[in-house]
Amino acid sequence: MRAVEVTAFGTPDVLRLVDRPDPEPRPGAVRVRIHATIVNPVDSWVRRGTMAHRTPHLPFPFTLGFDIAGTVLDDTDAFTAGQRVIGLYPWLVEGTGKGTNAEIVHADPRWLAPLPQSVDWATAATVPLNSLTARQSLDLLGCAPGETVLVTGASGAVGSFAAQLAAADGAKVVAVASAGDEAYVTALGVQYVLSREDPHRLVEAVRKVAPNGVDRAFDAALIGAPLLGAVRAGGGFLSAVEAAAPAPERGITVTGVHAKPDAAQLTDLIRRVVAGELTTRIADVLPIEHSAQAHRRLEAGGLRGKLVLTF
Ligand SMILES: NC(=O)c1ccc[n+]([C@@H]2O[C@H](COP(=O)([O-])OP(=O)(O)OC[C@H]3O[C@@H](n4cnc5c(N)ncnc54)[C@H](OP(=O)(O)O)[C@@H]3O)[C@@H](O)[C@H]2O)c1
Fold this sequence. Notes:
Blueprint: E1 2-6, E2 15-19, E3 30-39, H1 41-48, E4 67-72, E5 84-88, H2 91-94, E6 104-107, E7 112-114, H3 121-125, H4 128-141, E8 148-152, H5 157-168, E9 172-177, H6 182-186, E10 192-195, H7 199-209, E11 214-219, E12 231-239, E13 253-256, H8 263-274, E14 282-287, H9 291-300, E15 306-310
Parallel strand pairs: 8-9, 8-11, 9-10, 11-12, 12-13, 14-15
Antiparallel strand pairs: 1-2, 3-4, 3-6, 3-15, 4-5, 5-7
Bound molecules: NADP nicotinamide-adenine-dinucleotide phosphate.
């Protein structure tokens, strides 16, 4: 099988397309043939070594990739061979060094949700990590219907899922859109769309629509401490990256998130994508051979949607 391995920490040049033996069947696991996966910001950080302190036992070479959109190869109690599935693949936590930038992976069946026939592989791959992060973040924030929720990075994958889910939960969503993306973010069903600004001006803009401050903030853009000024005293603040969560002030509860596989949540999220209740965006679809190019494009910034890698 083909795989893309990280041979050392560094620039996208450390990525190597290699041929490896196909994984053999393994008790308790199901093999999945990957058709599409995503290049996420975390892949770039792991490749560079930014998270090396959290993964001291990661063996070189290792394989990146958190998203599964593929076909089951083995019959199990939960799945039959040939069935289409999606899943969040927690390879970094598992410490195996084997992510989804490989043609075949071993997965725990509890990580997988059935993928309806109507969803293409590329679209499906954009859903697991990003929508589960959004869902689990909103649950951690504990928003009640009618509350005001600020979502930064609403042009991005996690932020746009969060904005849509929060609106569907009954929150009044104040979403921050990247330049030129206001129409897309407005169509997510949010109440107010603010343009990306420096943090001080952004807080002023939030206070114009929510004079006492928002009840909760989900910081998918990692603005951090300066954004606390947009939150009311005693409110809630969640950073999409725990290490970027600021110190609490004025009784605001501050937390981070670590997205986990959850088949029931993922089944519901993909159902909502099929029903047209959730929108997801693709910037481009590239063959796995072009992973290094995908990493460079991600790091250059300004993408609208996800970069999909296909086998
Ligand atoms: N903890 C977890 O389990 C978990 C899981 C998944 C993702 N994450 C994290 O969640 C974050 C978002 O991920 P993603 O996949 O949604 O990334 P993404 O698609 O690149 O979206 C990030 C968005 O934030 C915007 N942005 C960046 N800096 C900003 C600023 N200062 N003000 C306003 N907007 C800003 C970007 O706009 P431009 O493109 O215009 O710069 C982009 O639209 C990442 O940090 C990622 O690592 C965490």
